[in-house]
């Protein structure tokens, strides 16, 4: 599906919730925003937020086939137990963040919409795509997936604004109208390449400045979790340093790259807030929250934080190799990369309105309420 990208013709003052992670995300545990009129939400990112954009991507011989969650057992715990394109057993982070803001569910996938986009009963747009990353695929020469990288998602946002502008007339979109969310896949490669991680941080900063120039002013960022502890990475830890958080142990070489990116992210946001007038931010420490859960899973009701509830091929068009686990609320990981509905809820509760040790300098709720 192709769309022409038009330059925006209106300004906006936006709240941008940027969630930087490869395999994990966060949602809110049923808490609702006290705002009477929920803001529209614009979501950018990867499979943590994808609500079916990948369903609309076409296979190409040059770039391969998109990963889709449009088959069982995805959506087994979603209303009607139907796969919806979400890489989850039920609702995903996009849905729960929307609920926290007072909406019923995530805004629709961008590629599912027809032009022009109507402002009537408008709740926002979801641009997220499984596999979506900070860089374009032309830079990552060893990739063969079809996806929507962050720069293209930003173009789609500009197109959305351009479609809405004629309907809004001279009324700009204000701070209570736009809420940006993004999950960005960060897959460290090559291993032990510090320059690679530094370039990723710089590129993410450029993306934030692009959103700032579009009118975004508030950025809530969830950092990268310990991706070396994901089921798909545990099998790759052989021959590299690891520690035990379940079968196979976590790949500490990969986790150290995540820490390096997270440290760079803190410096980046501090720098941007000093340089860009009106920019405010909050960082959710997903790395520490995840490690704390892995160290004492029983305290949160988890019996397994190392093995996927469902087995490969979770991200292909084929059916799962076997039915998923029955006790899904006891699992942290739904498939080899993405977390269960319950895991996402608990994480978001910590970042949205939880203890200060998991957010800096303020939590997301306070950031949202800030003038």
What does this structure look like?
The protein is α/β, with parallel strands linked by helices and 371 residues long. Helices cover 28% and strands 11% of the residues. It contains 8 helices and 9 strands. It has a 7-stranded mixed β-sheet with strand order 3-2-4-1-5-8-9, with helices on both faces. A hairpin with a 6-residue loop joins strand 6 and strand 7. The N terminus is likely disordered.
Descriptive tags:
signal, 11% strand, alpha/beta, SGNH_plant_lipase-like, two-stranded antiparallel sheet, seven-stranded mixed β-sheet, 371 residues, disordered N terminus, GDSL esterase/lipase, lipid metabolism, hydrolase activity
N- and C-termini, Cα separation: 39 Å
- Low-pLDDT ranges: 1-15, 19-35, 137-144, 172-192
The ordered string of helix (H) and strand (E) elements is: EEHEHEHEHEEHEHHEH
Largest sheet: 7 strands, mixed
Record field, number of beta strands:
9
Count of separate DSSP helical elements: 8
Measured as a percent range, the helix fraction is 25-40%
Quaternary organization: single chain
Radius of gyration: 19 Å
Round the mean pLDDT to the nearest integer and report it. Answer: 76
The backbone outline, from C-alpha atoms, is globular
| Largest sheet, spatial ordering of strands | 3-2-4-1-5-8-9
**Class by SSE composition:** alpha/beta
């Amino acid at each position: 599906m192709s769309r022409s990208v038009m330059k925006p013709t209106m300004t906006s003052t936006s709240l941008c919730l940027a969630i930087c992670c490869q395999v994990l995300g966060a949602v809110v545990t049923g808490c609702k925003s006290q705002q009477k009129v929920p803001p529209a939400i614009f979501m950018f990112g990867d499979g943590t937020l994808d609500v079916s954009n990948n369903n609309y991507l076409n296979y190409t011989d040059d770039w391969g086939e998109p990963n889709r969650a449009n088959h069982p057992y995805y959506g087994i715990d979603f209303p009607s137990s139907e796969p919806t394109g979400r890489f989850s057993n039920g609702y995903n982070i996009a849905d729960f963040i929307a609920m926290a803001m007072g909406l019923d569910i995530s805004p629709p996938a961008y590629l599912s919409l027809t032009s022009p986009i109507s402002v009537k009963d408008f709740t926002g747009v979801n641009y997220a795509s499984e596999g979506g990353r900070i860089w374009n695929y032309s830079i990552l020469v060893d990739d063969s997936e079809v996806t929507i990288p962050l720069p293209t998602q930003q173009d789609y946002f500009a197109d959305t604004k351009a479609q809405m502008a004629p309907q809004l007339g001279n009324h700009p979109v204000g701070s209570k109208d736009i809420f940006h969310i993004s999950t960005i896949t960060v897959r460290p490669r090559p291993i032990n390449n510090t320059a690679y991680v530094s370039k990723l941080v710089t590129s993410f900063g450029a993306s934030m400045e692009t959103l700032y120039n579009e009118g975004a002013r508030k950025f809530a960022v969830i950092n990268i979790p310990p991706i070396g502890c994901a089921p798909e990475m545990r099998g790759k830890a052989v021959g590299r340093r690891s520690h035990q958080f379940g079968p196979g142990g976590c790949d500490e070489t990969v986790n150290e790259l995540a820490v390096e990116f997270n440290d760079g992210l803190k410096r980046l946001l501090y720098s941007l807030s000093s340089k860009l007038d009106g920019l405010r931010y909050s960082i959710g420490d997903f790395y520490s929250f995840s490690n704390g859960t892995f160290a004492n899973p029983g305290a949160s009701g988890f019996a397994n934080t190392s093995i996927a509830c469902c087995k490969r091929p979770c991200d292909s068009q084929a059916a799962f190799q076997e039915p998923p686990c029955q006790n899904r609320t006891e699992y942290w990981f739904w498939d080899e990369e993405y977390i269960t509905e319950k895991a996402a809820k608990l994480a978001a509760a910590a970042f949205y309105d939880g203890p200060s040790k998991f957010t800096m300098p303020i939590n997301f709720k306070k950031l949202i309420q800030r003038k």
